[in-house]
Structures are given as structure tokens and as C-alpha cells.
């Protein structure tokens, strides 16, 4: 199994000792887990509660495996051969794959050694720990720790959306696959997540009218809608996504195009179409822990609200996610293109009238307080802002240096007071909160207490509208603005 590994530093084959004969680097193997990450990255997920939170057990593992095979159809080979699983977690896929005898040998990876220990414990509990040659290794998509053409198949379930540099990761997968090898990833869909969030926001708004008191189950759903809004708003902005555990949602044809550009021979986005989305909704409510009777209310109301949004989607997007199936050419004619950083588009100035089209005006209440910090200034921006267009961030500029605070926090109170009659989209009014500590590192204070301040609303289409121009922020005092 060590013929699969190389030293990430010098790319020479790595012997079983874990000590590179070329550069002398030593990669520790603790509890049988070969550690390439070395603690540089880790998951924000609660490892001990992961299975319970996501409802993962042997039964769900088997169902997930069967669903993957069903979607792949006749693309699935008679044997996966030598497999590397990226982000195996606690073994959702691997325990079923090994039980079905799909692989000749396997390397199971995750960024977290604790996840790998839980995965191995599950395999041993099921009597699968010695069913085939098996290795565990930490991998974060930032280590070139696998040899060229080492594997027949690369599998990942809900892992690519955690990886900052998707292009770079796909290029690494291309490199580690044998000619003719395949890669298979299950990932969340951008378009479906967005329309599901918008429909659920409308339902929450209706329930607020009927029952203003906010219970825990409704708050749980509201939190999911807010996080979905944040995720969709920040797509394409690597700086704002960097600190999030879930960094991406995908558009099928865009992922296909990226994989082909990297060098794969084929790239397909496959899914199970659900015309009404009820199955996806039921799974979501169960996964995030919404209990009865709130779940029942939502399921009954869903058909009336979802139709207006699901009708906006092409049939290929009528599912919560995709199975991406990629194949490497049998005779690769070129190496994959090198990774190039994703750069956010520069916002372009607009006006409130242009954004609203003469409709409902912007509303906001925002405050900023500043204090000196190591190497600069820390500003706490809090409040809310609302428009009938999607405000992505509030941009705060101090002495020419800009930082952005995402607009997404749940604010049912603002919705009830400012939007009782529904003039603003519930998707925006229910998730209009701002609460961010922004570090202006490198800002030279030089004993100054008064600083120039500007505030802009930046929208999802990358237009921005100035809200405060030429304001003054006094260190230690609150700056407030509203309308």
C-alpha cells in the first residue's frame, strides 16, 4: 500500500517507514494513520456528534451507497479496483463499499485524524477492517501526497464543497488517477438550495403571522434558511468563504466545464429529479432536527409555495445535489492545467433608484464601534439592512481600506416590524442581520482618534450603492446610521 504515497515536499516515493529517503522529511504514523496534514488544517465539525447530527448509521450508509450506484448506472465498473476516498468522515461510503467487495484495496483520507479513527472503529465493528488492504491518511487537498496514476477510482461524498481551491483539487485527482480511471463526488446544488431557501422563507413568514411566538423548531429552520442565504450570496468570493466549513455550492454545467478544462475526458452532473421536492424537504427537516408539529406544517404548506420557485429551475437542477462522474482519458495527451486563484469581481457603482426600480426603498439600522488592535483596528459592525434585491455584504471603508460584513443573520424581529405586509421578499427580510468583527490590519492610526468612514451595500450581482459617504468614525464611540 505504500506504493500509493509520495513525499509531498520532494515528490519521491515514500517508504513504509514514513521517512523520505530524498529530503529526510518524516511523516508520523499515529494509531495507524499516516499524517500528511500535521494539524495545519482541521474540521469545524463536532466529530463525536457527527453521526447523530447527520443521522448516519449502517442503514443510511447502505442507502447512500445504493443511491450512488443507482445514479451512476452502467458507468459503475465491475470493480472499482484501487480506490482513494477523499473526506471519508466516519465511513458513510467506505463501510458499504467494503462490505459489497467493490474495491481491491483502498486508502481512506480525511483532514481530521479523529474522523479517521471513528471510521476505522466502524469498519472493525462490522468485521471489515481486514477485508482488503487498507490504509488511513490525513489529506486536506493541499498535500501532493499520492503518486501519479496510483488509483483506479477516487470517491468523495459531500467533500468537495469544503475545499477552497476546487480547480487545484480536481487537477490533483486527475494526476493521481490511472489512465481511464474514474472520479465520483456527491455535492450540493446551488440553484436548488437557493429556491428551497426562498420558498421556506415564505412559509416561515406565513407561520409568523399565524403564530408570532418563535419555537425552537421554527428557529432551527430559520437558521438553516439564513445559512443557505449566506452560502448562495457569497459564492465566487473566496475571501469571504475562506473561514466557512461549507465553502461551495455547485451548478452542474459549471462543474462539468471546470472538470473538462482541467483535463478529464468526460464530466457529467447526475441527479434524481424530484418535481415537487418533498423527498428532499423531508430529508432536510429530519437532518437539521425539526420535529413535529412544525415539520408537518411545513410539509403541508410546501406544495403551495414551492411551485412558484421550482418552476424556475431546469429539470436537471430539481434535486438538492449532484453526483459528478468524471473519467480520465485512457491516453492523456496533456497534464491538467495548473490551478489559478479565483478572484472576486470588482463591484460596480449603482444607485438606489436603479436597484429598486422605483419600488420599496432601502431600510437599515447599523452601528459601528472601533478599538485599536494588534497591527491595526478592529471594528464591530452590527444591525440590519433590507432591500428588495439581495444585499450580499455591507462594505465598510476606513481611510481607503475596505472590509466586508456578510448580510445573513436571522432577524424575525425586523421582519415582523418592518415587513408585516410582505412588501419585501421574506428571503431578505428574515435574513437581514449583520454582526461582524472586522480587522483592519495594517491600518496606521498614528495616534488619531477620528477616521474617515464610508458604508456601501454590495448586492449579489456585484453592484454597490453608497449609504454613508464621508462619515467620521471616532475610536471608542459608536457610529450609527439608519433609515
Descriptive report:
The structure is a single chain. The protein has 483 residues and is α/β, with parallel strands linked by helices. Among the domains are: 2-157, 3-Layer(aba) Sandwich (Rossmann fold); 348-482, Immunoglobulin-like. The protein contains 14 helices and 18 strands. The strands form three sheets. It has a nine-stranded mixed sheet, with helices on both faces. Helix 6 (190-210) crosses helix 11. The model has no long low-confidence stretch (mean pLDDT 92).
Largest sheet: 9 strands, mixed
**End-to-end gap:** 65 Å
The gross shape turns out to be globular
Count of discrete alpha- or pi-helical segments spanning 4 or more residues? 14
Radius of gyration: 25 Å
Instruction: Report the sheet-strand fraction.
Output: 25-35%
* Average predicted local confidence, pLDDT: 92
List segments where confidence is low: pLDDT < 50 over at least 5 consecutive residues. Answer: none
- Tell me the helix content: 25-40%
CATH class of the domain at 2-157 reads: Alpha Beta
Total strands: the figure is 18
In spatial order, strands of the major sheet run: 1-2-5-4-3-6-7-9-8
Q: Which class best fits the helix and strand makeup?
A: alpha/beta
CATH fold-level topology of the domain at 2-157: Rossmann fold
**Overall CATH architecture of the domain at 2-157:** 3-Layer(aba) Sandwich
Amino acid at each position: 500500500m505504500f506504493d500509493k504515497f509520495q513525499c509531498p515536499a520532494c515528490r519521491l516515493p515514500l517508504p513504509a517507514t514514513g521517512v523520505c529517503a530524498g529530503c529526510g522529511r518524516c511523516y508520523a504514523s499515529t494509531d495507524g494513520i499516516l499524517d500528511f496534514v500535521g494539524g495545519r488544517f482541521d474540521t469545524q465539525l463536532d466529530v463525536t456528534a457527527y453521526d447523530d447530527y447527520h443521522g448516519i448509521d449502517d442503514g443510511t450508509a447502505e442507502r447512500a451507497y445504493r443511491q450512488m450506484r443507482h445514479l451512476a448506472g452502467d458507468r459503475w465498473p465491475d470493480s472499482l479496483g484501487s480506490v482513494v476516498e477523499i473526506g471519508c468522515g466516519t465511513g458513510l461510503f467506505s463501510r458499504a463499499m467494503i462490505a459489497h467487495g467493490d474495491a481491491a484495496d483502498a486508502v481512506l483520507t480525511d483532514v481530521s485524524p479523529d474522523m479517521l479513527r471513528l471510521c476505522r472503529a466502524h469498519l472493525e465493528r462490522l468485521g471489515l477492517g481486514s477485508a482488503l488492504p487498507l490504509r488511513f491518511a490525513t489529506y486536506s487537498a493541499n498535500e501532493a501526497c499520492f503518486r501519479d496514476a496510483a488509483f483506479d477510482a477516487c470517491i468523495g461524498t459531500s467533500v468537495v464543497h469544503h475545499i477552497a481551491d476546487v480547480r487545484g483539487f480536481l487537477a490533483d485527482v486527475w494526476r493521481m488517477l490511472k489512465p481511464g480511471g474514474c472520479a465520483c463526488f456527491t455535492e450540493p446544488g446551488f440553484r436548488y438550495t437557493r429556491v428551497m431557501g426562498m420558498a421556506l422563507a415564505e412559509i416561515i413568514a406565513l407561520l409568523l403571522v399565524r403564530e408570532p411566538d418563535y419555537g425552537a423548531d421554527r428557529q432551527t429552520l430559520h437558521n438553516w434558511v439564513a445559512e443557505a442565504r449566506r452560502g448562495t450570496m457569497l459564492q465566487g468570493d473566496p475571501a469571504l468563504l475562506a473561514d466557512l466549513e461549507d465553502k461551495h455550492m455547485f451548478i452542474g454545467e459549471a462543474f462539468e466545464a471546470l472538470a473538462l478544462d482541467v483535463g478529464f475526458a468526460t464530466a457529467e452532473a447526475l441527479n434524481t429529479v424530484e418535481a415537487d421536492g418533498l423527498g428532499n424537504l423531508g430529508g432536510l427537516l429530519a437532518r437539521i432536527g425539526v420535529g413535529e408539529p412544525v415539520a408537518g406544517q411545513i410539509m403541508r404548506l410546501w406544495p403551495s409555495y414551492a411551485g412558484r420557485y421550482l418552476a424556475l429551475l431546469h429539470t436537471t437542477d430539481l434535486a438538492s445535489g449532484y453526483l459528478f462522474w468524471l473519467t480520465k482519458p485512457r491516453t492523456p495527451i496533456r497534464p491538467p492545467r495548473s490551478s489559478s486563484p479565483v478572484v472576486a469581481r470588482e463591484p460596480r457603482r449603482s444607485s438606489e433608484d436603479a436597484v429598486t426600480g422605483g419600488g420599496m426603498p432601502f431600510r437599515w439600522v447599523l452601528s459601528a464601534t472601533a478599538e485599536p488592535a494588534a497591527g491595526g483596528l478592529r471594528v464591530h459592525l452590527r444591525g440590519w439592512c433590507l432591500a428588495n434585491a439581495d444585499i450580499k455584504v455591507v462594505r465598510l471603508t476606513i481611510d481607503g481600506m475596505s472590509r466586508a460584513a456578510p448580510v445573513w443573520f436571522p432577524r424575525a424581529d425586523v421582519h415582523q416590524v418592518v415587513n408585516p405586509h410582505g412588501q419585501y421578499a421574506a428571503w431578505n427580510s428574515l435574513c437581514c442581520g449583520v454582526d461582524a468583527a472586522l480587522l483592519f490590519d495594517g491600518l496606521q492610526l498614528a495616534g488619531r482618534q477620528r477616521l474617515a468612514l464610508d458604508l456601501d451595500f454590495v448586492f449579489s450581482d456585484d453592484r454597490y450603492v453608497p449609504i454613508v459617504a464621508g462619515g467620521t468614525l471616532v475610536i471608542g464611540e459608536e457610529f450609527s446610521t439608519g433609515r
